[in-house]
Structure formats: structure tokens, C-alpha cells
Design a protein that fits this description.
Layout: E1 12-19, E2 28-33, E3 36-43, E4 46-51, E5 66-67, E6 70-72, E7 79-81, E8 87-89, E9 98-99, E10 101-104, E11 107-113
């Protein structure tokens, strides 16, 4: 899996997913882009987007509890860094995608890699 946040902006297509008012601090938004489930977190005005898919068993991840900047899989307790998608605790051993997020004129946009 990839931390797409490390891609140059021109290597991504940014998709508008919501207005800032739609995702207040402390909230999350579940979306799908190109048939990829993604969850967007707003933590104190900072936005983070990761795959809504635990790499341990392909179960949903975004409903899990947050512990600081870690999301805990509600099924088996694997932990992931919401900034990078890096796996932090077993039973998962594979990172998940993390996506760049930007705000332009009050619109939240998520960057997905351009397919070549």
C-alpha cells in the first residue's frame, strides 16, 4: 500500500468531496472515490484521509475509536496512523493508503493518484 501523501501534487487528481462546514472538528466522513472506500477525519481543523479498509481482514476501519492520531480497528484491534496509513499494532502487518487532503475556497479535496 502507499502513502499517497508523498506524491507530488501534479501526480494526483484532487476530488472535491465536501464543504468544510459538512465535516466539523471531531467528525469523520465516509466516501468512495473510484470504488475505493475512504474515511476523512477532522481533528481540530486538520484533515486526514485513509482507506476505510483494515489490511488485516479487509473489514471497515473508519468506525474505529481514535486514540490521538491512531485509529483502532473495531474488529480485531489493529492500529493505524491516520496521517500516514502506517500499521502500528497487530494483527495487521501491512500499511493502508493515506491520501493528501487540501482545502480550496472552503471545499475539502482528496488527492487520488492519476492512473497512467
Amino acid at each position: 500500500m502507499y502513502n499517497y501523501k508523498e506524491l507530488k501534487p501534479e501526480a494526483c487528481e484532487f476530488v472535491t468531496i465536501a464543504d468544510e462546514a459538512d465535516v466539523p472538528p471531531g467528525e469523520r466522513l465516509f466516501i468512495e472515490i473510484d470504488q475505493k472506500p475512504i474515511v476523512l477525519f477532522n481533528l481540530a481543523g486538520h484533515y486526514y484521509a485513509i482507506a476505510d479498509l483494515c489490511s488485516h481482514d479487509d473489514g471497515p476501519l473508519g468506525d474505529g475509536d481514535l486514540d490521538g492520531l491512531e485509529v483502532i480497528c473495531p474488529r480485531h484491534g489493529a492500529r493505524f496512523d491516520i496521517r500516514t496509513g502506517k500499521v502500528l499494532a497487530l494483527p495487521a502487518v501491512e500499511d493502508i493508503p493515506a491520501y493528501p487532503v487540501r482545502v480550496i475556497d472552503g471545499e475539502i479535496q482528496i488527492g487520488v493518484p492519476i492512473e497512467e
